[in-house]
Amino acid sequence: MLRRTAMPAPVRAVFAAEMAAARRPGPINERWRAAERAHIVSQPWPGPHTRTHAVMLRLGTAERDLVEVLGQLARLAVAGVGSTAGKYPSGNTGRTRAGLNTPMPIPGDLAALLEAAGIRLEA
């Protein structure tokens, strides 16, 4: 299914808050958690999904984690295409260690947000 709709305002608000937290100086584990949550809600939309991987690339670079950096470069190459085509692993946190095509459980608050926005979640 091709997604050509704009990100609904409630989803956009959560995405923006999580991205701001991921970019803000602070403990790296909290920044990664925010980036992962932003990734989960952004997957259906090509632009936001790709921007999330750019932030993850910066976090991986800040940690000097070569495996994460290389994984994020690969994800940057496919994120927009996957979102456009509706082919992405539901709930995946976007980290290299998560696996490129591995579906994961979606936190309850994010699942409710996406369902309210009309996004069909994989079982």
Task: Walk me through this protein's architecture.
There is one protein chain. The protein is mostly helical. Helix content is 62%, strand content 0%. The protein starts with 8 loop residues before the first helix and ends in a 7-residue tail after the last helix.
Number of helices: 5
Distance between the termini: 17 Å
Q: Which secondary-structure class do the elements indicate? A: mainly alpha
| Topology pattern, helix = H, strand = E | HHHHH
Major beta-sheet overview = none
Low-confidence parts, pLDDT < 50 over ≥5 residues? Answer: none
Label the overall shape. Answer: globular
Helix content, binned percent: 55-70%
**Secondary structure: number of strands:** 0
Q: Over all CA atoms, what is the radius of gyration?
A: 13 Å
Arithmetic mean of pLDDT: 94
Strand content: under 5%
Please write out the topology.
Blueprint (H helix, E strand, L loop, with lengths): L8 H15 L4 H15 L3 H17 L3 H20 L22 H9 L7
Short précis:
This protein is an all-alpha fold. It has 5 helices and no strands.
Provide key terms for this protein:
single chain; 5 helices; mainly alpha
